[in-house]
Amino acid sequence: MAKKTREVRVPALRRADDVRLSGLAPTGAGTVEIEGLEVVVPGALPGDRAAFDWRPPMPGGRRGLAEGEVRILEKSPLRGASPLERCAKAGRCGGCPMACLRYDAEIELKWRQLLKDELAAAGFDADALCTEPLQQPEAARTGFRNKAVLYPCRESAPNGRGRFGFFRAGTHEVVPAEDCPLAPAWMHEAARIGASLMDTPAAGEEDLFAPYDESSGTGSVRALLMREGAPAAGATRGERLVTLVLRERPSEAAVARIRSAFAALPLEHLSFNVHPNPGNAVLGFEEGATHVIEGREAIETTLEGLSFEVRPETFLQVNTPQTPRLYERAFSLLELSPEDGFLDLYSGIGTITLLGAKRARRALGIEIVAPSVACAEVNARRNGIQNARFLCGPVESVLASDAFRAEAAASRFTKAIVDPAYKGLASGVAQALAAIGLERIVYVACGPKNFVRDAKCFAALGYRLVRVEAVDLFPGALHIEAVGLFVKEAGESDT
Ligand SMILES: C[S@@+](CC[C@H](N)C(=O)[O-])C[C@H]1O[C@@H](n2cnc3c(N)ncnc32)[C@H](O)[C@@H]1O
């Protein structure tokens, strides 16, 4: 019997001859309301007047989308003097959709749309709670990233040059960007050197460094990872690490070429990582996947006079100048004193735990990534900190474990910082924290929407949100970090 097929009608294109955009989509594209629908207009920004064709969403969809040429009739006053002022690749490489805007306009938009509107929609008094965002200092608006991951491509044959860049938003198409302005100059040089390894070889020469092609599973080079530590006291620069990620173990000849290519660059640590499995993970994580060519598999960085070991696969805030300012705000709101037992959830390599241990009686960090916990333990020892412990595992399970109960009995936790990944707290975590009876909780959030969801949960558990600060850690991107302070309401048993 012939199968019945249901015809899906694609809505017909419509024309917008002259509309002024007012909002921003999560991709950083401008949006406008037409016929009661939100229409996303790639290439246009809030404040632009534009003409374009657009298509309503398919049944069940929420947003319409502009298609074809978007003609800007009048530029938004929020744009910089030139749309390419802050980066020649803005809006194309997928990294910094907001870099066409003036920085003050970018901050205002992100702060309002990502944080204040979300808080207000959830019933919080956003104007009373939110303080002016802490902006990236002007002198540090370029070259501030301490980590970059670039992906490979090769220009067309016959003499195609190798290139490194970022994926165009929503695709696997690489936009070459060795000279990303967010990365320091030495990373530009490292990216050019790495890219030159992938130049099409001369006839008869072996192609040792072809870019990896996920669809066919062929090629070798998957990514270039670069990291830099903050300089130690008295040093003029931080330690530098380059890791070339390859699909398979390279030959001796290939390793020799990597070594000699990077020899001209002042670099402490050079390695390659073997990552044979399909998928989006940057590094291969199997035991022994990383092979050191020079130096070590880790760099050292510093924060508030403490020294931290960071491995390629462990988390570290990427914005070197803003990170101490973010932590300063978090600790200032938390008001730790030497009597406090301090809990740090989602503790990474122990940065916040150890900074807290200096201020509190005892500190405990909880983190899921085992190499991060191993770094955190090394970091406690190398800084001579003896009042900090770490537990490894998902926060949601560790909080219910006997090991945690034993720590809680010894530490009598009074204050906590939670710094989860974008998705926020797992279900049950806010309840577990409330059950401990903490006086103050500071929530450091890279996902403001999920922060607001969790704030409602804390409010229902008797924790009042008393302040929300925003710190810009991601100039050019549609992201802003929020720092929220929750204070336990005085209940009947407390009065
Ligand atoms: C935003 S980072 C914060 C790290 C650290 N606080 C810092 O400032 O460097 C979030 C951390 O949470 C960890 N993580 C993610 N899910 C987790 C979970 N369910 N339980 C514990 N840690 C988790 C990640 O590995 C990462 O180190």
TrEMBL record:
The keyword Magnesium does not apply. It holds the Pfam family tRNA_U5-meth_tr. Keywords: Iron, Iron-sulfur, Metal-binding, Methyltransferase, S-adenosyl-L-methionine, Transferase. The keyword Transmembrane does not apply. The active site is at residue 446. S-adenosyl-L-methionine binds at residues 317, 346, 367, 419. GO terms for molecular function: methyltransferase activity. InterPro entries: NA-bd_OB-fold, SAM-dependent_MTases_sf, U5_MeTrfase_fam. Its EC number is 2.1.1.190. GO terms for biological process: methylation. Belongs to the class I-like SAM-binding methyltransferase superfamily. RNA M5U methyltransferase family. This is 23S rRNA (Uracil(1939)-C(5))-methyltransferase RlmD.
